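Following up on my earlier message about coenzyme A. Here are the inputs again, as you asked, copied directly from the submission form:
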Amino acid sequence: MASIVIDRFSKDYPEFIACLHTFEGLSYSEKRRLMDYKNILLEIEDGIAIITINRPEALNALNRLTFSELDLLFDQDLNQIQGLKGVIVTGAGEKAFVAGADITEFSSLDDAGAMELSARGQRIFDKIEQFHLPVIAAVNGFALGGGCELAMACHIRVASESARFGQPEVNLGIIPGYGGTQRLVQYIGKSKALELLLTADMIDGQSAVVLGLAQYCLPKDEIIAKCKSIILKIAKKGPLAVREIIKAVNAYYQKDIDGFDAEVRGFGLLANSNDFKEGASAFIEKRKANFKGS
Ligand code: COA
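Thanks, got it. Here's what our run produced:
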């Protein structure tokens, strides 16, 4: 099975999609052998993973391989990094965070293939949203279509002054496929989301902050430092509490889970933790808590 994947992967890159199911069936070590990241740079700085989508010649458009690499990262590889504090997602080059899904891969799609592509993209972005550590998008330029959807799957967005957010799919006669119609409504409300989705208008970083889509808009050379400082601040809190907050907040938007129940469960779980005992003792003893994540 593995050799089929290698053959197609190395001989005919666009055909890689044909064996995605096969790939998904492989074990972690088999997948890892087959895949060195080609479209993603992964660096670790100060215990923080910086993931750079690295296809600047195509404004970092998300092709299928890039999705596979994001999947492997958030599903498995990031969990192997000892002491990881959080993740920053950004784009290579001067112009773009991510300028969307790779449009050149759309031409060969039939309706079933398109639905599969969309559902797969949603599953992968859900993994980012559900990641147990903070994931922050450093939006350094165009964040369009799938790029805006990727940024929205992250927990927090720090935009540069040159950032441009938008869902221009309607210009192509299609709709967003990776959660854009849902998360944009969650962040900025139905009316404004409908306006952006229907007109394909772009908004800049400052407007994104005003609308609640981004949390900060800063000069470009300051955004990674800001992302790091947010992650390092969160890293001082109780890791189990951070994980349960992400879960409970996400539960608000999940139709099959009651968010209030998720909060009750998380609260109960943490009440018995050493971290909670340590946090409460530290408060009473007027010292800084030393959380162990247990
Ligand atoms: N998919 C594939 N290739 C893309 C791409 C995408 N989503 N976005 C940009 N590119 C490629 C361009 O085709 C071009 O390649 P080329 O040099 O081989 O011709 C290269 O990236 C640079 O883009 P270009 O359009 O020349 O840059 P620009 O500064 O004039 O315009 C944008 C920038 C972002 C406004 C423009 O590229 C654009 O509209 N991209 C598509 C955005 C979109 O519709 N996204 C949603 C997809 S569903």
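One observation from looking it over: Residues 76 and 270 are 25 Å apart (CA to CA). Hope that helps, and feel free to reply on this thread.
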